[in-house]
Amino acid sequence: MSIDIRVYPTGYIQTNAFLLSNLDRKEAVLIDAPHFVWDEASPALEESGCELTGLLLTHGHYDHIGDAARIQKMGVPVYGHLDDREYYENPEIMRPYAYPPDIDLQPIQVQHWVGQGDEFEIIGERVEVRHVPGHCPGNILFYFQSIKAAFVGDALFAGSIGRTDLPRGDFPTLEKSIRDQIYTLDDEAVVYPGHGPQTTVGQEIATNPFVNGG
């Protein structure tokens, strides 16, 4: 089975979106939807002949859902965590800290609420959900088990962690989430964060200055 992973840093603050395509099944899934990502992802789907079968949202902050309404209107089912429901359905509440101030914020309806310990299959892959709050209440990671790939939203970055100074952020909660839900994955698991380059669980346990592995 061949899984192609493409990274699209896009939107106003270069938020990462990830397009995973099962080239054998001709199915794809998009993880997070920053503004304008469809303009980048749709040519890749056309090239591969894959159909987009799901949109997985790691959390509800405006920079991760900017193109979600556009994609949802195409009939693509959306997955997310219930604790960020207000962000999904009433994104105007984020305008005070959104950039630019006149950014387009469109509400979406999540069809599949998923949370801690849930597992489901998409594009022929088994996906585990882990709840990693702290950056915001509903941040989750999607762990693709066979390829050991963890898409963690803004919980953990390469050498850094997500902000906790935004509304409903909390550092002790985030620290516990990282230790309990990310650092317990395989050391060789690849971490794909919402901003910046990929890393590995083992690398962050050994060197992350904000949440070390001790």
Q: Any overview of this molecule?
A:
The protein is an alpha/beta fold and 214 residues long. The protein has a single domain, classed as Ribonuclease Z/Hydroxyacylglutathione hydrolase-like (Metallo-beta-lactamase, Chain A). The protein has six helices and 14 strands. A six-stranded mixed sheet has the order 1-2-3-4-5-6. It is globular. 47% of the residues are buried. The mean pLDDT is 97.
Name its key features.
Metallo-beta-lactamase, Chain A, six-stranded mixed β-sheet, alpha/beta, 214 residues
Sheet with the most strands, sense and barrel status: 6 strands, mixed
Our estimate of the beta-strand percent is 25-35%
Number of helices: 6
Helical proportion? Answer: 10-25%
Unreliable runs: none
N- to C-terminal distance:
37 Å
What CATH first level would be assigned?
Alpha Beta
Strands in their spatial order, largest beta sheet: 1-2-3-4-5-6
List strands and helices in order, with pairings.
Elements: E1 3-10, E2 15-22, E3 27-31, H1 37-48, E4 51-56, H2 62-65, H3 68-72, E5 78-80, H4 85-89, E6 112-113, E7 119-122, E8 125-131, E9 140-144, E10 149-153, E11 156-157, E12 160-161, H5 171-182, E13 190-193, E14 199-200, H6 201-207
Parallel strand pairs: 3-4, 4-5, 5-6, 10-13
Antiparallel strand pairs: 1-2, 2-3, 7-8, 8-9, 9-10, 11-12, 13-14
